[in-house]
Amino acid sequence: MTLASRALAQLATWPDLRQAVPSCGLGQGVSSAQGEIAHFHSDRDVDLRLTDRAVRRFAKDLRGSGAIRIVPGSQWVTLRLDAASDVDLLLTLVSVALQAQQAWPDPADRPSYGCNDQRGAGFVKVDLGAF
Fold it and tell me: Which residues belong to any copy of the Luciferase domain (predicted)?
């Protein structure tokens, strides 16, 4: 069992989540009543949707993690699952994403952009000093 499949199996047991086909059409996903939460694109890469406010709030905390990529202007962060601790980080961030969607919903008129996988950017560590 890969780390991604293990994480997806755990998330499938959460009462606020359901498995769904990602809007980008690649891999597997999970959604809440408020919308998409995560896209599992491969055995290692997962895109997680956070609100803009949550991304800004936690960017400094995530700066030291080599497992996370933040794309400026995106409400999605990408996690690379290389170790069991990365799965634990993903589960924690999914909980943050669920809370953020409820507490700080994106405006209804905000245009919907695809996940990071659709942006074609490779997994690279970026300077988060701009956040």
Answer: 35-97
